[in-house]
Amino acid sequence: TEWLSRRIGGVYIPIIANIDGGEDKEIIFNGNHHAFIFKSDGSLLDGWPIGIGCYGRSPGENPSVGNINDDNEPEILLNHFGWDVNDDNGLYCGYCAYAWDLNGNNINGWPIECIPGGFGSSGTASHPLVLSNFDRQIGGLESLLLDKGRSYPSIIYSFRSNGRDVDNWPIMFEDDQEVVSKPAIGDVDCDGEEEVVFSIVNLDDIGFHVLDSHILQIVSKAGEIEGNFNILQDKNLIGTGIILFDIDNNCDLEIVLA
């Protein structure tokens, strides 16, 4: 199509979901600093595409779909490479997370700005938003976002459906640490409460990964560290996703990464 012929920035893996309740599914993806929803016949869904980002920057990763505000309709969520400037067309680049309804309207409280470094700082929202009602409150889903800052330490945010931070979040890491995996959510210890699991690695004085410093952390919904495990791995093997699964059928979840 005309939109996809404009190769500005990257194009990411699409997701397929029935978001409008019809017989056919829609194709949702981002690229060319736009978010797209195509119908099964190749035409754009009304209200789409939506321009985001600027200076040729594409959105940060693949979209997520879920009913975050408990209105019985799915919303489309997308992270972005935040950059605290306006482009030549006046479009602001500083938002790190977006949420839209089916018609392309912003959900109340979104988009979200999460740039702690001031003008010119640049975040790297490097994984799709993870959706879960991990704090067990009525009113929708929470959205977890990993922000691998380029000019500041890694941060993991947790937003409510109205765009506000979950209590005791975000989690900010030390200058010499980097979160290298997409967060995973599950009841790891079978106590009826979900935890957030991710891995981090230490950095040397010039910002490179330190060998044999890969650490797996388990954090409660209150933002408290419940587990901290050292994993001896070469730096070329880190940075993958984490899968939580009850392999041995004993209620506790095992943590799988490679």
Helix segment tally? 0
State Rg.
Answer: 19 Å
Strand composition percent? 25-35%
The outline comes out as globular
Describe, in plain words, how this protein is organized in 3D.
- This protein has 258 residues and is mainly beta.
- It has strands at residues 15-17, 26-31, 34-38, 50-51, 64-66, 75-79, 95-100, 112-113, 130-132, 142-147, 155-159, 171-172, 177-179, 184-186, 195-202, 214-219, 225-231, 243-245, 254-256.
- Helices cover 0% and strands 31% of the residues.
- The model is unreliable at 117-122 (pLDDT under 50).
Write a concise synopsis of the structure shown.
By secondary structure, the chain is an all-beta fold. It contains no helices and 19 strands. Helices cover 0% and strands 31% of the residues.
SSE map:
Blueprint: E1 15-17, E2 26-31, E3 34-38, E4 50-51, E5 64-66, E6 75-79, E7 95-100, E8 112-113, E9 130-132, E10 142-147, E11 155-159, E12 171-172, E13 177-179, E14 184-186, E15 195-202, E16 214-219, E17 225-231, E18 243-245, E19 254-256
Antiparallel strand pairs: 1-2, 2-3, 3-4, 5-6, 6-7, 7-8, 9-10, 10-11, 11-12, 13-15, 14-15, 15-16, 16-17, 18-19
